[in-house]
């Protein structure tokens, strides 16, 4: 089980490799939210999302022998790129198993980061079986996207930075809203805050209709999502809270938020106009919660993580044209 | 004349108020440029450009009596917003003289930052005369956009940060390419580098056809631009190098770059895709120079300032649709 010692060790391994992302703000966003909004811009992290932290943490924690043999991950998105870049910089072979219908740009990017991309047919083939076979044949280490001690520790380094930055800005008491898929970022940040900034309370944000963590927190038991497709916030849609992450999140988190796709897109447009950062819808759900759910938040300050910015140009342009700029 | 002591004093006044902007990078951009490209993301600064530094420096350097009476600036753009926010946070009255045909959003933003906006008719009225009359009537202090000792000192604080960040990344020798209008940012950064990182050489970047500083540096004498309209990079089009800035820049700068509007737009699109930041064309000319003028640069590293991100949604969307993402 990940603890603060894992997170501190991960921070030491990430030093000089991950970016210390800035905490941004805008008087215009404060006016909308009715309180000060602080935006931890993880979209500026290498590969465009916080996932690089977990990827680096996991790859750098391998033994030399494991690293030489290489790693494998299943992902069509941000985890793939985070692991691929971390592996490349460690000189570790890397296989990414992706669906054949993944966007061509994402496949090309993952290859350009030095990974071997293995495509599978979503309809006819089983991803886990393909991955398990390749991993066994080549003795690769599987790096899961959230249910992995060192991945959670890596994401937790974002929480250490938030604790420091909150102190710099004299923020002692606030909700910290975190985009939540499998819950790795939420769990890691929660553990870091528990130890370093106990006045800061983690709260997950999810897309409406895919708020498995919010419902699980409310009921105390693991709830699954009815669907796995149909959200613009694809980066944070997962079947259910993780086996490692949920026990942490149940212990540490305040109530979750659920926002609509349109609210996420509006947050994307406001982040463009007011913060000059590029967010993907899934990366904007925490900002959307801060802006559009003010009655569910207490206090003069709220901190949100803007977790990723890997969005297609067409969708971004349509968010701007629908919600101004 | 601004010197390093002014810049250090400005940095002390800006501490805790201006953002220490991150130095970003991307392996994909390195591939295009053929060397490591480091991007100082000043678009993330408050009000979306480095101009907040100069505005804060100037307003905070006023005597209590001057501050109480207030400040005035002429600008339709980034300088207006930088001065307005700095004045608001100092409780100083602020008048901004803007052309009546300035974009309504910019007028609204400047008002929302607490400034009194005085509109004039570009065709029939003289801006300087209007400004001088109001300043005299109310005893306001004029804050010029670049030919002002404390403004140059404020912009120089960006150079202090670049010197520190270069040291963190062990960059000892590199060109630092700087978007250049009147030359305030170039001069301030140049002075800071001269003192703190003498291996880093400032070089201005301008739009083609508006490269007054590059031509002035080449000839050793002040050259003017033939036109003042017709560039997408409106934020950095000025009639001629400044009276205070040019002597500094002539002493410190390497040769200038001129890039086309299309190259600037392509840099805007690449900054979206690879860095997840929002740039305006004028803020992207230094990045464009690093990417598209590799033969004019030496060494393994190049640092560029991404100086501003105040771009309309329509133009941004058209940059993405023309140059991909």
Automatic annotation (TrEMBL), chains A, B:
Domain Tryptophan synthase beta chain-like PALP, which positions? 17-308
Q: Which InterPro entries match?
A: Ser/Thr_deHydtase_PyrdxlP-BS (IPR000634), TrpB-like_PALP (IPR001926), TrpB-like_PALP_sf (IPR036052)
User: What single Pfam family name could you report for this chain, choosing any that match?
Assistant: PALP
- SUPFAM superfamilies, per the entry: Tryptophan synthase beta subunit-like PLP-dependent enzymes
Any one Gene Ontology BP term? D-serine biosynthetic process
User: Which PROSITE patterns would you find in this protein's record?
Assistant: DEHYDRATASE_SER_THR
What are this entry's molecular-function GO terms?
ATP binding; L-serine ammonia-lyase activity; magnesium ion binding; pyridoxal phosphate binding; serine racemase activity; threonine racemase activity
| Reported cofactor(s) | Mn(2+); Ca(2+); pyridoxal 5'-phosphate; Mg(2+)
The UniProt keywords, alphabetically, are: Lyase, Magnesium, Pyridoxal phosphate
Describe the family membership recorded for this protein in Swiss-Prot or TrEMBL.
Belongs to the serine/threonine dehydratase family.
The protein depicted here goes by the name Threonine/serine dehydratase
